[in-house]
Amino acid sequence: MLNFFNKVLISLSELTPVGDSCAIDSLINQCKSTVFGGRRGEYDSVLSHCEYTGLVKIKNKKVIISTLGQKFLNANRERYFEINESQKQLISERIVFLGAWSHHARELFNSFSLNQITETYEASILDTSLSKNQNASIHFFTYLGILQEDKFVIKVEKKYSELVYQLTADGKAISEQQLEKILMENRKLGAKAENIVVEFEKRRLIKLGKPAQAELVKRISTINTAAGYDVESFDGTTDEIFPNRFIEVKATTGDLLHFYWSINEMNVAKKKKNLYWIYMMTSFKEDKPYDTIPILIQNPGHNIPKRSYLTMEAHKFLVKEISEVVLSKHNIDEIMWYQLV
């Protein structure tokens, strides 16, 4: 159903390039005219779900894309059939926690409890009695990346913990203001990690005797969000003034190597090969950012699949640790980091 949301919105944008409305019958015929993703959908039902979730508005048998629907469409620049990670996050934040599906989320998360150690919500598969609808919600929320299953425990992804708290605390839907505040906190964590990596790179290059290059290290995620990486730097082996190290920063408050890798980031990594790096910040604390030493992964598109202690789930591009990660320790005076080997 979610994939067919893309088909409906893409077809609607083709029929109404300037954002006007079109007849329901015209939209459904446009959707049925081609097989998208190798499948045909029941577009009357799909369109009803699009209206229910707020992606489109229907009035007098006319359809128009909503602001949320336009955001959902913009998150799929390549116009693929299968929804991507950015779209899943948008669904999670705006529809599951804030919108039409919030009552399903509240019903499920009322059976979860807060783990004071991990600071996230979880439920035991063995001890928790769940209805058929709640089990369906677990499957769906896991697909979206809201939940993860760890043996006999279902855990809420840390970045969604505050949303779960707000949703279940008073039994009311999360307001737009509450959601924006929580999302801002998540963005602040990512920005803090990127700034720490910029400082780390500057110190590393200075220690290598490259102060000019150190001055040129910069965070570009604020300038170009589609670049596929966050920081431009240098390997420090030459005096080249053009960046030759492109760094994607990943941060998690957990202690395991665990991150989502978007299709765009993966494609850029494949093109840049050894020039592309992932700097993984585990156990990252915003109030103690300098306590985290980054794990460096060069050419991740080549190296991650070769490591038996890591697994990558192709549909989600979720890279996570399944056995102890092998790291080599590096020092340049007091500058220390760990590299994947």
Which key phrases capture this entry?
alpha+beta, Topoisomerase I, domain 2, Arc Repressor Mutant, subunit A, 3 domains, four-stranded antiparallel β-sheet, 17 strands, globular
SSE arrangement, N to C:
HEHHEEHHHEEHEEHHHEEEEHEEHEEEE
How helical, in percent, are the residues?
Answer: 25-40%
Query: What is the number of strand segments?
Result: 17
Strand order in space, largest sheet: 8-9-10-12-13-17-16
- The biggest beta sheet, please? 7 strands, mixed
Which structural category do the helix and sheet elements fall into? alpha+beta
Separate helix tally: 12
Describe the structure.
- The structure is a single chain.
- The protein has helices at residues 2-15, 24-32, 43-53, 67-74, 85-96, 102-109, 132-144, 161-169, 176-207, 211-216, 263-272, 300-303; strands at residues 22-23, 56-59, 62-65, 113-115, 120-124, 147-150, 153-156, 218-219, 231-233, 245-251, 258-260, 276-281, 295-298, 310-313, 318-321, 327-332, 335-340.
- It has 341 residues and is an alpha+beta fold.
- The protein folds into three domains: 2-82, Topoisomerase I, domain 2 (Orthogonal Bundle), CATH 1.10.460; 90-174, Arc Repressor Mutant, subunit A (Orthogonal Bundle); 185-340, no CATH class.
- Strands 8-9-10-12-13-17-16 form a seven-stranded mixed β-sheet, with helices on both faces. A four-stranded antiparallel β-sheet has the order 4-5-7-6. A three-stranded antiparallel β-sheet has the order 1-3-2.
- Helix 1 (2-15) packs across helix 2.
- The mean pLDDT is 84.
